[in-house]
Amino acid sequence: MRGFNGYFSDDRKRKSSENFKTNNHLDVLRVVRQPIDIRIAMKSALEAGLTLQGFQTNDNLELYYDVFRQQRRLCYLSKGWTDPGFRIGELIEIDRKVPAFKDKFSRIFEITSRNLISVGVFESNQEHISLNLQVGFYNDGFNALVLKEAVDVLDESLGEIRQILIPC
């Protein structure tokens, strides 16, 4: 231990500090922020006439719920640990072999663009493409009215999309 002065190099100190901040930050969010966000989501859903079921959380998601109106599942509500707000969304798959695939894909993007719904595109496998349709809300703008209107717009859009995807 010759030359050791009791301090780590700046690089090791920084890495250790970054890991400590990251781990502690997530722990603080879990203890302090998560219960607040869960209450906000539950209260907003209740006031909007919606029900949240199937709570899930993990290292990526602070919260996840399936959103229902009466007994019908409409979409999901989620929030990541570092997200600035909540999001609602739905995942749909499109068979690449359906007749007029490109036309249907284009029409779906027209619907989502018109209704301010963002779309993530993922290749599920050789035969399908998955579309993740989402509407995001910053924490400050999230309330029952905004949630209800966004769920209604997403539900109407999904209805139009289903009509496009139903084989004729």
What do these coordinates show?
- The protein has 168 residues and is of the alpha+beta class.
- It has one domain (10-165): Yope Regulator, Chain: A (2-Layer Sandwich).
- The protein is 44% helix and 31% strand.
- The chain has three helices and six strands, in the order αββββαββα.
- It has helices spanning 10-47, 101-114, 144-165; strands at residues 51-56, 61-69, 72-80, 85-95, 118-123, 128-138.
- It has a six-stranded antiparallel β-sheet with strand order 1-2-3-4-6-5, with helices on one face.
- It is globular, with a radius of gyration of 21 Å.
- Residues 1-21 have low confidence and may be disordered.
User: Low-confidence spans: pLDDT under 50, at least 5 residues?
Assistant: 1-21
Radius of gyration: 21 Å
Helices and strands, in order, run as HEEEEHEEH
Strand order of the largest sheet: 1-2-3-4-6-5
Note the main sheet. Answer: 6 strands, antiparallel
Known CATH architecture: 2-Layer Sandwich
Based on CA inertia axes, which overall geometry fits?
globular
What is the number of helices?
3
CATH class: Alpha Beta
Indicate how many domains the architecture comprises. Answer: 1
| Class computed from helices, strands and strand pairing | alpha+beta
Amount of helix: 40-55%
Mean pLDDT over the residues: 85
Number of strands: 6
Please state roughly what percent of the residues sit in beta strands, choosing from under 5%, 5-15%, 15-25%, 25-35%, 35-45% or over 45%. Answer: 25-35%
CATH topology: Yope Regulator, Chain: A
* Head-to-tail CA distance between termini: 78 Å
